[in-house]
Amino acid sequence: MTASGGTVSSSVSDGLVKLESRSPVLSYLARLDDGFEFISPANYSSENARPEDYRDVLKAISEACEKSLPDGIIILHGTDTMAYFAQIAVRVLSRFAIPFVITGSKIPPDSEGTDAFKNIDFAVRQVKEGNSGIVFTTHEGVPAIVPADKVTSPDIYGDYGVWPDSADIDFSGERYKRAAEAFLASETLHRIQVIPAAPTPGILDEGFDTVLITCHHSGTADVKLVPKVRKWRAKGIRCFMAPVPRNSNIYESRAMLEAAGAEALPGMPPEGAWAEALVT
After folding, report:
1. What is the DSSP secondary structure assignment for residue 249, as one 8-state letter?
2. Which of 20, 36, 53, 63 could potentially form a cystine with 1 if both were Cys, beta carbons 3.0 to 4.6 Å apart?
3. What separation in angstroms does the CA of 12 have from each of 9, 24, 156?
4. Which of 34, 33, 29, 9 is CA-nearest to residue 20?
5. Cα separation, 198 vs 102, whole angstroms
6. What angle do CA 126, 128, 131 make, to 5 degrees?
7. CB 8 within 8 A of CB 78
8. How far apart are CA 97 and CA 165, in angstroms?
9. Number of alpha carbons in the 13 Å side-chain half-sphere of residue 25
C-alpha cells in the first residue's frame, strides 16, 4: 500500500481541505489486517503534481517490489491527475506481473459521505481477484474499475472514462521494461510541449525536447505547425500525435504532419500518449 497525497490523504479544517503527513485512512487500513506493507514516498496535491513526483513514487514502489515481491499493489492518489499517473504506472509496474490498483476519493475521509473507505474496500477486493486499474465510486454511488492503460481523465462528476479505441499493448515486454528502468533512473525527464487541438494554438520555440500534438484524429495542422515540426525533427526533437484512430481514413492535415516527421500514436488516449512520450 502506497500513499502519495490527494484528497484521500487530506482532512478538512474550517472548510479548508489540507494534505496530511499521515493519511487519516491508515488506522482503517490497520484494522483490515490484510498484511499491508505501507510506504509513503511523497505527499503532493495531484493538481500540482510534477512528472518528477510520479517518477519518485513509482521508483519507491519498484524498489520495494524488487526487495520482496508482494501479491499486489494499492496506491492512494489524488483524483485530478490520477489518469496521467495511471498511464505511467502501467508502463512502469507491468514488468512485475502483479495486480495493482490506484484509488483515491472525491470527498476527504474525515467528511460526511466520503467515498474513501468504499474505494479502499473495493480496491483490496480487485487486487485479491488479480485485477489492475483505477478504482472509484461513480456519481451514482457504484464502485467501478477502469483499466489503467485505457483510462481517461475524470468528467464533471469525477468519474473516469474508458478510451473507446484503445489498442492492446504488452506493457510487460522487454521494450517497456528497458524504458521503465531508464525513466526511474533518469535525473532529468523529457520536457514535453503539448499543443492542444484548438485554433491557432500557442506554440513555444524552446525549452522542450518532445512535442505532443493532441490532434483528435485530424491533425491540427496550423499553418505554422508543419514547418515547425520539420524544424524540430531536424534538431532531434521528438514529435508525437494523438489521439488518432487505428482504422480509418487519414485526414490531409494528419498526413502533412506525418510527412513532416510527426509520429502517430494510434490506440492511445491523450493521457496515454503523454505517458508514452514521457516514459519511452
Report:
1. P
2. 36
3. 11, 11, 22
4. 9
5. 31
6. 45
7. yes
8. 24
9. 33
Residue 219 near residue 256 (C-beta atoms within 8 A): yes
Q: Is the peptide bond before 24 cis (omega within 30 degrees of 0)?
A: no
Overall size of the chain counted in residues: 280
pLDDT digits (tens, 9 = 90+) for 145-159: 999 999 999 999 999
The alpha-helical segments, DSSP class H, found in 68-214 are 82-93, 116-128, 174-185
pTM score, two decimals? 0.91
| Weakest-pLDDT range from 185-194, 196-205, 236-245 | 196-205
Q: Which residue has the cell 481517461?
A: 152
**In angstroms, how far is CA 149 from the centroid of its own chain?**
8
CB atoms within 10 A of CB 85: 29
Pairing status of strand 2-3 against strand 73-76: parallel
Pinpoint the alpha helices (H) of the chain.
26-32, 51-67, 82-93, 116-128, 174-185, 225-234, 252-260, 270-279
